[in-house]
Amino acid sequence: MYGKAIQDRLERVDMGLGMLGTWGDGGITPLCEKTFTCEDVKQIRQFIIAVTEYTGSQVDIVAYSGGVAISRKAIMGGSCVDTGEELGDRLTGFINTFVAVAGVSYGMETCLTQKSGNLINGVNCNSQYMRDINFPDNRYEGTFSYFIYSDTDEIIGQQCCGHLCPELKNAIGFSRQTNMPHANVILMTEDIQLKMVQHLWKALNQMEI
């Protein structure tokens, strides 16, 4: 799965707009009212499986904002924290590269006093959902994983339970943007996203932190 910009640049025509995925209601629900439901997770999980079956090969995923948290659980599988429903085994083998862009990886600093900040399936770094997707010690999002973040992200924030909020656990590389608002991170880092998908981005131990 690719964001539209990367899809255009790679000239992916095998599935047309079907290569684009979304979750939930596409932004109708206000940010601080949205939670990570099992239904949303299943929607993305089914999409990943469908694309993999259609192409007959591994897929690449560029996930953005809350889509990072949803995609990670969709890949991870196991039980949903809100319903207890069993999703199934991990889909790690289905994914080659996973790129988290301005992602809700360890949580968010905003919305904590509203519905989205609940301690079951919310963005609070102490919620069952966030702890669940960050519990594994090994990389499960794909063979390769990267993250891109802004040090001035006004939505995600920076500090989540001792971690950088958008930091993707076990990622092999990252890109830090400065003075870039949340909404611009996905739009203004297309070249970096492409390099990561094509494995042209330096690994973490080769980069300045």
The spatial strand order of the largest sheet comes to 1-2-3-6
- Backbone structural class: alpha/beta
Kindly state the mean pLDDT as a whole number? 89
Query: pLDDT under 50 segments (min length 5)?
Result: 9-18, 205-209
Quickly give the CATH architecture.
3-Layer(aba) Sandwich
Give the % helix. Answer: 25-40%
DSSP strand content: 5-15%
How large, in whole angstroms, is the Cα Rg? 16 Å
Our measurement of the CA-to-CA distance between the termini, rounded to an integer number of angstroms, reads 28 Å
SSE sequence, one letter per element:
HHEHEHEEEEHH
Report the sheet with the most strands, covering strand number, pairing sense and barrel closure.
Answer: 4 strands, parallel
What name is given to the CATH topology? Rossmann fold
Tell me, briefly, the overall form: globular
Overall description:
The protein is an alpha/beta fold. The chain has one domain (4-12, 30-201): Rossmann fold, CATH 3.40.50. Helices cover 26% and strands 14% of the residues. The protein has helices spanning 4-10, 38-55, 66-76, 128-133, 182-185, 190-197; strands at 59-64, 95-101, 144-150, 159-160, 163-164, 173-177. Strands 1-2-3-6 form a four-stranded parallel beta sheet, with helices on both faces. A two-stranded antiparallel ribbon has the order 4-5. α3 (66-76) links the parallel β1 and β2. α2 crosses α3 (66-76). The two termini are 28 Å apart. Mean pLDDT is 89; it is low at 9-18 and 205-209. This is Triacylglycerol lipase. It comes from Panagrolaimus sp. PS1159.
